[in-house]
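Render this sequence as a predicted structure.
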Amino acid sequence: MKQENKRIHPHKFTLWIALASIIMMFTGLTSAYIIKRNLANWITFELPQIFWYSTAVIIISSITIIISRNYFRQRQMKQYRLWLAITLVLGIAFVLMQYIGFTQLWHSGITLTKNVSFSFLYILVGLHALHVIGGVVALGIVLVKAYSPRVKTYNIVPVDLINTYWHFVDLLWIYLLIFLSMIR
């Protein structure tokens, strides 16, 4: 009887370690936020409405990346590339909406160095934005490779990696938005 290979791919293992590290970082930052909000000079603030719209965009992008992965598994490359491109456009839209939200905050006087509460907002949301930008770059690379005439094999590992990472940044944003909305 043949024994199945149950080992995790090294790239997937590395991604899971990286995600655990990111979780630890954001856990530490949100814990510090909770402690610091008891300071006398803590100022509460409202999040821009566009952050909520960007949430819808990133949730839709998680759906489109699932669709693209399903098409990849079915070897329907034209549909896979289309849905991956849609995911990339939605990722870029999310980043642009975050930029607009930060611009609105800045113009309303909520600047990085004005108050510790504002600094935490910029650090938390800004670090998440950097991770999303990294995901957008990775999506772009995977999309370019999907159009490459030299690639003839169907290697699911890069597709699974970008799917896992993209869902992670989606869930992380939802967590941060709920956290920042409830813990003031």
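Summary. The mean pLDDT is 90. The chain is about 75% helix and 0% strand.
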